[in-house]
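=== Structure Prediction Worksheet ===
Name of assembly: unnamed complex
Input type: mixed (protein and possibly other molecules)
Chain count: two
Listed entries:
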Amino acid sequence: MKDNNFSEWYNEIIEKAEILDVRYPVKGLYIWLPYGLRIRNNIISIIKQILEAHGHEEVLFPLLIPENLLRKESEHIKGFEEQVYWVTKGGDKELNVKLALRPTSETAIYPIVALWIKSHKDLPLKIYQVVNVFRYETKHTRPLIRLREITTFKEAHTFHKSMEEAEEQVKEAIEIYKKFFDKLAIPYMINRRPDWDKFPGALYTIAFDTIFPDGRTLQIATIHNLGQNFSKPFDIKFEKIDGSFDHVYQTCYGISDRVVASVIAIHGDKDGLVLLPDISPYQIVIVPIIYKDSKKIVLENSMEIYKRLSKKYRVYIDLREDETPGSKFYYWEMKGIPLRIEIGPKDIKENVVTIFRRDTKERLKVENDSIEKFINDLFNDIYNNLRSKAWKRFEEKIVRIYSLNDIKSGCVNEINLCGKDSCGKYLEDKTGLRVLGEAIDKKEHGSCIVCKELTDKIYRIAKSY
RNA sequence: GGGGCCGUAGGGUAGCCUGGUGAUCCUGCCGGCUUGGGGUGCCGGUGACCCAGGUUCAAAUCCUGGCGGCCCCA
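=== Predicted Assembly ===
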């Protein structure tokens, strides 16, 4: 079902694995359930760690943005106008100044940062926050993919003394997201968005796209070079070494709930979630195999191993007596727990435990004394296996195309394109696919698939979410 | 942006076309016995017609609107 009806599979997993409750009576808003939230939080802490290691500091700005600030940068507001939720009343009273629920936080953050930055010594400044943002989506909403409340919006904002430094920051951001998605074993391609699809107000936008099992691409991270487009209207100035003043150069970059969607969609299989040890709420679940006559010894043994492993891992021991082992197996596989340890009378007699790995469904017998060592290796194995499988499937969905007639809709097409808007738009109209943008890591001589002009630019087009 | 389909217990469904029976079945949940190394079996119980209006003696069923879900095309 994952392969022939991805949507159905996805919705079912979200519900059965208890990621979200999708029954909230407002379109595009969902409830994080405890299990899903733990996965989300584990993922967030990974990106936080990486950002902090790269010198970013966490901040937290308000949700409401006064209308005049939201409108300061004209391209920006044009891009978001149709999607803004407004707060117009306080109780019964009409507000004098309408307040927007942030669709993103540039216009909330920048006027304040303008107060913080005085001199070149204050630069670079690198901050980030993890917040919710609201967008009145008119298109089909989907859990974690297209939301009206994006509950997990990690946005970083950086401020620099020169365009060169801002360009360097874009490169650092790319490295940050590479590390992040590598850690999650999510394959990606990096595309420079066409001008008509860049972030409103940006000089240019670079995006990470992954490919879902149904062949559609999903944007999972974006990086924007803002130049001085925001620092001028928001008047973010600094004094240079020579005493003159300039407006700062800025970048911003973000990820969202879509990262969680990718983790679910890319690693999951027909039996449910498949989680990496790093992000799984529990890394190991212990299922004692209880028979009447050996109940006591099995429980004692299981508890002992549970306590022992809990020192190093996140472990859950499933002591429910009204469920049979078989039903527990299915349950924890749906939940994606990387390892299951079965302990029964046979194991105890042989002084072993039975370890089952979720990713390959193999069962292994492991000597009692060497469990920890074995698990450490196994965790690495699981990561490597999931990562290489994911990249393999990803690459199978990318094709190199030389003629308009050969373009395929179920995968990512790599083509030569001159880069003119007119050729890109023509292509979108003609194929119904979307121009994801120019591959930043790939060049190849050829001629534009539309106008035949010589070019070495490779563009990617695909059906996207 | 355009078009189509749908809304019945916690989940999945039958019934709707052609209005009228105690609203079907599976699953889940609760209780009991049984079983326990891949969804153990049996018995008993629980729980639903999205909302508002309209048509009608009578609405899950027909009509209008709202809210919500899904699919296709651009």
